[in-house]
Amino acid sequence: MANKHTTAQVKNTKGDQQLSIQQHETDCPILPVVQLEQLQRFKPEAVDWIINQTQIEAEHRRAQIIIVNRYTFIERIAGQVFAFVIGLSGVLLGSYVALQNQPTAGAAIAGAALAGLAGVFLSGRRAK
Length: 128
Fold this sequence. Notes:
By secondary structure, this protein is an alpha+beta fold. It has helices at 33-42, 44-99, 103-127; strands spanning 3-11, 18-26. Strands 1-2 form a two-stranded antiparallel sheet. A hairpin with a 6-residue loop joins strand 1 and strand 2 (18-26). Helix 1 crosses helix 2 and helix 2 (44-99) runs antiparallel to helix 3. The longest helix is centred in the middle third of the chain and has 56 residues, at 44-99. The two termini are 25 Å apart. The mean pLDDT is 86.
């Protein structure tokens, strides 16, 4: 859990005036207990509202994560299906050309299709 706390204070040299600013960033879905206690002293009904809003935000975030995971799965499966279709098409086209008394051209077509797919898969794996 990442936390970042920033505090800035300015004092007036001619008087007793002072200005303090605090900022707190966290990736935790709810405010730290210390801040909730301070809010309880300042405005008690706000603590329940904060907890309720945090729950609503967490449910929304979980729903979004489920949707993203589902689309990622669909994208990966579709990529594999299309790669299979492209590879099969290249091999079938190469076989057809080879059966038409052009075995060198057929082997070149089938080999190029498979080598191209292998190159795409290997370069994609290296990028990750």
